[in-house]
Amino acid sequence: MVKQPDAMSLISLAPGQRARVEAICCGQGFRMRLAALGIIPGTVITVLRNAGAGPVIVEARGGRLALGRGQAAKIEVRPTSGETRGG
Question: What is the pTM of this model?
Fold first, then answer.
């Protein structure tokens, strides 16, 4: 996959931010795993936890998913309008 203009890595988002997946820049196996979990380009995700160490926890399509930091770095996203979620 080619890096999308104005896209950023999932790892750079703060907790509460919402973003749309633009691209998944990795091997076919990881892309297939994410697709099985409902994470494909176009999916809107919300970052629940990103503490700078440990996994990045996201919510997508009503489910929660923990991603290793290296995995999250390979997912390119674009923040949506209304980036933060109250709570």
Answer: 0.82
